[in-house]
């Protein structure tokens, strides 16, 4: 620990100027209650002052309830806000709860809005349109997940999430409240495909599987005709004569 010596006060009298080290280096200390308590040797008061300063720092770093709700309304989760601010999750949840209800209500209202098509708003609602699209494509419409959040421009973005096989999918719409439930406009390709009445390609393309016909029975290959040994007279095998074996000639002539 380096030792310092007091060399004076700053012009305003708020700091004590100290000096130490070789070559000399100057430092300044705030002339506050902590320094006075340390000078008097009042360790109890000094401990309280240090704890209060740390509490003030923690409160300063904490998000205000208004900031918490603004981040949740913009789409952040409770866990994300707690992690970013270093706050306790229970505190974030307390202020986030009414905003999460607001987001859920906006998503519910958006499902009753009418998709905007090329020729104007559709007769069916967004929920009816999406349910029809999923059933047509062989997907389960009962496991859809809806969410919504407000953008900086004040408009609502609605997210539809679903799972097909092992893949997670999402489609996004712009929700505009209004008469007769309001309207929703597709933001991305997935949303456009869901509300397009003439779009018949599956939402999750499947690879074509080659057709194998197991009913046809392959005809057995024809058997080769059996070869019969060459026979001599009267159907008996030809037996070489003794002289043929001894002299290497065929019976009936010379080789």
Automatic annotation (TrEMBL):
Superkingdom as given in the UniProt entry: Bacteria
Region (Disordered): 216-237
Pfam families, per the entry: DUF3071 (PF11268)
Domain DUF3071: 1-175
UniProt name for this protein: DUF3071 domain-containing protein
Record lineage: Bacteria, Bacillati, Actinomycetota, Actinomycetes, Mycobacteriales
């Amino acid at each position: 620990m380096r030792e310092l010596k007091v060399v004076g006060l700053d012009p305003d009298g708020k700091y004590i100027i100290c000096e130490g080290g070789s070559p000399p280096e100057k430092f300044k200390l705030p002339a506050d209650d902590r320094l006075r308590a340390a000078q008097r040797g009042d360790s109890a008061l000094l401990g309280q002052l240090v704890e209060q300063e740390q509490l003030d720092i923690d409160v300063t770093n904490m998000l205000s309830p208004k900031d918490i709700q603004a981040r949740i309304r913009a789409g952040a989760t409770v866990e994300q806000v707690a992690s970013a601010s270093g706050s306790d999750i229970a505190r974030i949840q307390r202020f986030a709860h009414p905003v999460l209800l607001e987001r859920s209500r906006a998503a519910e209202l958006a499902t009753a809005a009418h998709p905007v098509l090329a020729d104007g708003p559709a007769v069916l609602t967004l929920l009816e349109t999406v349910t029809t699209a999923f059933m047509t494509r062989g997907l389960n419409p009962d496991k859809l997940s809806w969410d919504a959040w407000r953008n900086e421009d004040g408009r609502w973005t609605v997210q539809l999430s679903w799972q097909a096989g092992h893949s997670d999918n999402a489609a996004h719409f712009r929700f505009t409240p209004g008469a007769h439930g309001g309207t929703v406009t597709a933001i991305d390709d997935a949303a456009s495909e869901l509300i397009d009445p003439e779009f018949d390609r599956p939402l999750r393309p499947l690879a074509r599987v080659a057709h194998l016909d197991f009913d046809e029975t392959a005809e057995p290959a024809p058997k080769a005709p059996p070869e019969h040994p060459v026979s001599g007279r009267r159907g008996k095998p030809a037996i070489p004569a003794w002289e043929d074996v001894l002299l290497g000639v065929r019976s009936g002539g010379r080789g």
